[in-house]
Amino acid sequence: MQRVIEPSAESRWESLARAAASGETSEDAELRREFVTFRLGEDAYALPIERVREVVRLRPITPVPRVPSAVRGVISLRGEVVQVIDLRGRLGMVTAPAARTSRIIVLHGDDGAVAGLLVDLVRDVLRISEDEIRPCAGNEADVVHSLLADGTEFVSLLDVDRVLAFDE
Amino acid sequence: MAARRNTPSRRSKAHREFISEAEEILERMRDGLSDLADQQTSSGEADPELINQLFRSAHSLKGLSGMFGLDALGELAHHLEDVLDRVRLGRAGLDAAAVGLLDESVSLVALTLEKVESGTQDELLDRVADVIGRIDAWARSPEPTTECAEVELDPAMLRALTEYEEHRLQENVRRGRRIQLVEASFDILAFEEGLAELTVAVREVGEVLSTLPSPGEGAESQIRFSLLVATDIPPEDLEARLEIPGASVREATRAGGVAAAADPTAARASDSNVEPSLDAAPELVSLKSISDTVRVDIRKLDELMNLVGELVVQRGALARIARELQALPETARLAADLDKVHKGFERKLQDLQSGVLETRMVPLRQVFEKLSRVVRRLRRDTEKEVRLELCGADTELDKLIVEELVDPLMHVVRNAFDHAIEASEERAAAGKPAEGCIRLEACQRGNDVVIICSDDGRGIDPSVVRARAIERGIVSENTLLAEREVLDLIFAPGLTTRTEVTETSGRGVGMDVVRANITALGGLVEVQSELERGTTITMTLPITLAIIQALIVSVADQQFAIPLNSVRETLLVEPGEIQRSEGRELLNLRGEALPLRRLRREFGLGGEDQSGTGKQYSVVLGLGDTRVGLLVDRLEGQQDTVIKPIQGPIRSIRGIAGATELGDAGAVLVLDVAALVEDGLRGGGLA
């Protein structure tokens, strides 16, 4: 098993570069998955990179009536109109005012549809191997099913489909 | 409106539609082939129209298979089409080999369709390849040498003929028939009937080779046609037979035009009856057919529409900049020039927009034809006597709307067939003609298209509907409902007044889906009925969904766009003018009561209605004959907009049709007028 993440000092990129230089076999590479990590307040979360289309800066969000309160509204994105979900609200956290670091993560939805998630800060891409993903206890409706080991920290892996499932 | 969804149930429904459509085509082909066989044994000659029909069927089958990814079937259909094409163009004879191949191919198609239902069609791949191989071999056999006949005809007319028509022309000339030109004028509003009568009359004594509209002087309200005809009788006799005033018949071969040959390398016909050409070396006019229609993938039209939409938004931005520059003294002169250019641009853009919109318009005819077939099948299966009357098949709608209309219309018609029309005995007892009648009528009313389905059946019994609704918990026993509202309950989910569920309808999931579908298109569905007399379902739809002009309004400092199509007028409303009655707010609009809805309350935007002066504006929304007044704070102006679907986890938002972009303001929500009007009529609000 390849040790991928050093607890502190070395940045992830450096460790990746080292791993590449040391001639990783392709077999190892396949065991690795990539995640986009971000913060809501003090907590760290992650999303599978395949589901992330892009990350954009905050822009005017037009409020929409008759939708769950977690749906902040819609934004205009290069000709498309996309709903933006306040992830804090969606996860039952207290909402916070927008910050300079706030971003909207644009996701690929279930059938090609697109949605945006409003988060406080987007970090970088986490690349870890399968065995560093630990399941966590929780009931069916939870959006967090797994935890990723990120050095000393645990990052909550979000289930995208659950996040986007609003029972109407 | 919600984005189109390709859910599994939708896919399998499409699959079933394919099977039924393909089976129709197959049935036609089988009938055609058996007619062909009869003709071969009796006269040895094949009716060209029959070959033509078979060819068109094979072509349709090819297209249909292609759409559903059934490549093997598509290939087979393509080769079938090929065989028929060669025969109809005279490039191959209908010999025993060809007939055999046709029979075998059609049988294989039938077998394949059966297998498609169970998904096992790949088992037949070998057999398909075998038949295709043999068709290829047959096709490679040398074409019979065609004697080329000479025909003198106006070159312009020759150019307008398709390859098939030329072939028929050649064929008739070779047989020594007389080629004549029948010219007639018809009133523009009713020419179809007149032309059809003329064609039928000519067909009794000859073959119609081509029908061409002709230019020429005539009354403003008339349209002239020239029919190229092959017949054995002299022109005077033909003219006498036609009995159409103003029709004239003359021999086409004496037109004195330049002689033309179909194939420059073929030998001249030695037994033709045609007069020899005037010149020793006749000019060869190209007989290449010029088709005047082009098939276009609807997606390309969608892209074009989007582009035009973006251009429209850019133009709006340009106008705004021009206005701002005009306000500044240092740029005023340049701004005036810019404005002039912009106006010219605006005009051209509008022309482009209309042009593109027009390309997307298709007539309802195909949908009507499909419905005819459905009713024929229902008649066969149930042995109920019902006729379907169709009116207004030429009414045009945006292609996307037409596509979405098929399902709801199908259901409405099936419903009428199943539930409304009584059995013959019952009808006779009620003094009605034994044959029930379902009438589908489409017409354009201003910016909407109205489709009416009416029947002379038993009508809807309001007491039965009410009882069912109470039983299903849709309304409570104590609710007071006007008759109109009771009838409207048929659109409620879960309501069916039939005790058994039939295959075609009766699950109670029909009418609510119809309403949902029509509403998603921005339209309205209403029902009227009279016991014993019949029921009428009226569907009102906007003509197009693409670029629309919108009225921008603001409420609680938020802007909204309202499609101008649906705005009848705007009024300044003083607070004192609003009247209250039975918990609803009304306005007296020229003697009529206009129900009012406050957009602020409607959308829970909070605060009190205020524009700072206590006055508000009422935007009078209209759909069909219905009117509802929407109260807003301010009117901001008009804008060309492209309505975009709102993407995201929330599939549909009641009252919102989509969103559009307005300059830098980001997305502006577009109101769903149909939904708001409906809610306005019901009086109750949705939370």
Describe the structure.
- The complex is a heterodimer of chains A (168) and B (687).
- Chain A has one domain: OB fold (Dihydrolipoamide Acetyltransferase, E2P) (Beta Barrel), CATH 2.40.50.180.
- The radius of gyration of chain A is 17 Å and the shape is globular.
- Chain A has a 6-stranded mixed β-sheet with strand order 8-1-2-11-10-9. A 5-stranded mixed β-sheet of chain A has the order 3-6-7-5-4.
- The longest helix of chain A has 10 residues.
- Chain A has 4 helices and 11 strands, in the order H-H-E-E-E-E-E-H-E-E-E-E-E-E-H.
- Chain A is mostly beta strands and 168 residues long.
- Chain A is 14% helix and 43% strand.
- In chain A, strand 10 and strand 11 form a beta hairpin.
- Chain B has 687 residues and is an alpha+beta fold.
- Chain B has 5 domains: 133 residues, Four Helix Bundle (Hemerythrin (Met), subunit A) (Up-down Bundle), CATH 1.20.120.160; 112 residues, Alpha-Beta Plaits (2-Layer Sandwich); 65 residues; 179 residues, Heat Shock Protein 90 (2-Layer Sandwich); 136 residues, CheA-289, Domain 4 (OB fold (Dihydrolipoamide Acetyltransferase, E2P), Beta Barrel).
- Helix content of chain B is 43%, strand content 23%.
- Chain B contains 19 helices and 25 strands.
- In chain B, the strands form 6 sheets. Chain B has a 6-stranded mixed β-sheet. A 5-stranded mixed β-sheet of chain B has the order 8-10-11-13-12. Chain B has a 5-stranded mixed β-sheet with strand order 22-14-15-25-24.
- Chain B is globular.
- The two termini of chain B are 20 Å apart.
- The interface between A and B is medium-sized, with 31 and 31 residues.
Any chance you could write out the topology, listing elements then pairs?
The complex is a heterodimer of chains A (168) and B (687).
Chain A: H1 12-21, H2 26-30, E1 32-40, E2 43-48, E3 52-57, E4 71-77, E5 80-86, H3 87-90, E6 103-108, E7 114-119, E8 121-129, E9 133-135, E10 144-150, E11 153-158, H4 160-163
Chain B: H1 8-42, H2 48-67, H3 71-88, H4 96-118, H5 125-140, E1 150-152, H6 155-159, H7 163-174, E2 178-187, H8 191-203, E3 206-214, E4 222-231, H9 235-242, E5 248-251, E6 259-261, H10 298-327, H11 332-360, E7 361-363, H12 365-382, E8 386-391, E9 396-398, H13 399-420, H14 424-429, E10 436-445, E11 448-455, H15 462-471, H16 483-488, H17 510-520, E12 524-530, E13 534-542, E14 547-555, E15 558-563, E16 567-573, E17 578-581, E18 584-589, E19 592-598, H18 599-602, E20 616-623, E21 626-632, E22 634-642, E23 646-647, E24 656-661, E25 667-671, H19 673-682
Parallel strand pairs in B: 8-10, 15-25, 19-21
Antiparallel strand pairs in B: 1-6, 2-4, 2-5, 3-4, 7-9, 10-11, 11-13, 12-13, 14-15, 14-22, 16-20, 17-18, 18-19, 20-21, 24-25
